[in-house]
Design a protein that fits this description.
The chain is α/β, with parallel strands linked by helices. It has helices at 19-31, 49-54, 63-66, 84-91, 107-115, 120-143, 158-163, 172-181, 202-209, 230-243, 261-267, 282-291, 308-315, 345-358, 360-377, 380-395, 443-452, 460-471; strands spanning 5-10, 35-41, 56-59, 72-77, 98-101, 166-169, 187-189, 216-221, 247-252, 274-278, 294-297, 320-323, 337-339.
Length: 474
């Protein structure tokens, strides 16, 4: 068919436990509107039967012999060992191929590539190549077992970027960082598309999960590691629980091997109110999201990722607290609550939890705004067309296939592609809902709550709360 692309597609898929596995399984059917796709995997069979039945699947060992049949190749890279075979193949393509960079920081992945294969000296040499003597010093500290947060200052993504013909990212944050170092490298933005879930009541989801109907339930979704700010979230929740004993905090997701969440929970005396589910399927994640009164999606330092799990929370119409950093700052202020990652973080988290618990109308409006944002700006059809247009640009051809909308637009409107740079949803002061309820806060209650945690009138935390409230239109 004229205009259709022929692409080799490299990405982890389920049963490999990775957010990028879920991402690709959602994107592939939409991208197949514009391209014939062959999938290259690391010698396993996808657990998604629809994906396995629809696409040709090959072991990566066959790619070298078959590479000539494709217009180009897509290499999905994240900051985990699941991408080792993809990285190796990318390096061998000699300047052809499009790197889809899900995490701007690849340093943790690269450490595994070098140190797990007895190449400590090469790791030091490469860190010196990209970051000078300072990089060599950091590398020697890492070899001694010191994984400091400063690791995020050295993204170690250069080899992957240099090997690719072009790079595709999901945020202006990542695009600008790459352009700073590689101004001549083509770097495009594809929106992060997620399916808009059907709205489901909390009561139904809680009944399915066996959760109480009368508790305030806080939920964290996704892999648990030190950079998800759980120490701050747990501290804030402990203080919150003193006022709201009918509450619980559910941590949904697997834990990093060296991250002892259970001991942290026990030390804070929260073993009877904080629950760990372990790894959860997509259906379970959707249930826990629907059951939540509020979700937290905190990250700092950030690897420069755009979070599909966050967009799924927003799409489910739930209020969510995020860290004011990286790509998360690009989200509209009236769709999420942004928390500064400084010495006021814990106090801000506590105040926002109190505010949402006391004002269900505010929580409802934030959730409604968040869902509308995802409905408009995170369509899978738009994301796929972003891919198609950028790949055509890299190939030097016109994107002559018309935009094909998602089969059933969520609100029945005629869907159409919206260029990334023109997405202007929910800037501070905008209002999604013509008939939004009056959300004027009870400032007397807020002042009383502030006094209870010892905040003075001149405390900078109060200014941050006021600033966030103004952005939310309160």
């Amino acid at each position: 068919m004229p205009g259709r692309l022929k692409l080799a597609y490299f990405s982890p898929l389920n049963p490999v436990q990775s957010g990028i596995s879920d991402y690709s399984e959602e994107l592939l059917p939409a991208l197949a509107r514009y391209a014939d796709l062959d999938l290259y995997l690391d010698n396993y069979t996808p657990s998604n039967r629809e994906i396995a039945a629809r696409f040709n699947i090959y072991p990566t060992s066959k790619f070298a012999r078959q590479s000539g049949r494709y217009d180009n190749y897509l290499f999905h890279m994240g900051n985990s060992a699941a991408h080792a075979y993809i990285y190796k193949t990318l390096l061998n393509t000699q300047g052809k191929g499009i790197l889809v960079l899900h995490d701007f920081v690849l340093h943790h992945f690269m450490i595994g590539q070098y140190l797990n294969h007895g190449q400590a000296a090469e790791y030091i040499r490469q860190m010196g190549r990209f970051y000078g003597s300072e990089g060599e010093t950091i590398a020697r500290e890492v070899i001694k077992g010191k994984f400091a947060e400063s690791l995020f200052k050295y993204p170690f993504n250069e080899a992957a970027i240099e090997a690719a013909q072009a790079v595709l990212v999901h945020s202006r944050f990542a695009q600008s960082r790459i352009h700073e170092k590689y101004p001549a490298k083509p770097v495009g933005i594809a929106r992060m598309g997620v399916p808009l879930p059907p709205l489901e009541g909390k009561e139904t989801a809680r009944a399915r999960l066996g959760l109480p109907q009368d508790e305030f339930i806080l939920v964290s979704l996704g892999h648990l590691n030190p950079y998800k700010r759980l120490d701050s979230a747990l501290w804030a929740y402990r203080a919150f629980r003193r006022e709201y004993p009918r509450s619980r905090f559910v941590l949904v997701g697997s834990s990093s091997p060296n991250y002892d969440v259970k001991s942290m929970i026990s030390a804070l005396g929260l073993t009877n109110s904080v629950y760990l589910t372990g790894y959860a399927s997509m259906a379970e994640l959707q249930d826990y999201t629907a059951a939540a009164d509020c979700c937290v999606n905190l990250r700092y330092p950030t690897a420069g990722e755009t979070s599909a799990s966050l967009l799924r929370i927003m799409g489910a119409g739930r209020p969510v607290l995020v860290s004011r950093t990286g790509a998360f700052e690009e989200l509209p202020d009236d769709c999420v609550i942004k928390v500064d990652v400084d010495d006021t973080e814990e106090e801000l988290l506590l105040e926002y939890l109190r505010l949402l618990a006391r004002d269900p109308r505010l929580a409802e409006t934030l959730g409604r705004n968040a869902r509308r944002y995802v409905e408009i700006s995170s369509r899978l059809g738009d994301a796929a067309y972003d891919y198609y247009k950028f790949i055509c640009q890299v190939l030097g051809r016109e994107p002559d296939l018309p935009y094909i909308p998602d089969p059933t637009p969520p609100t029945g409107e005629v869907a159409g592609p919206t260029p990334v740079e023109r997405v202007e949803v929910g800037q501070p002061g905008d209002d999604f809902s013509e008939n939004s309820p009056d959300l004027s806060p009870d400032w007397e209650e807020i002042a009383q709550a502030a006094a209870e945690i010892g905040l003075e009138e001149t405390d900078p935390t109060l200014e941050k709360i006021a600033r966030a409230a103004r952005f939310a239109g309160l």
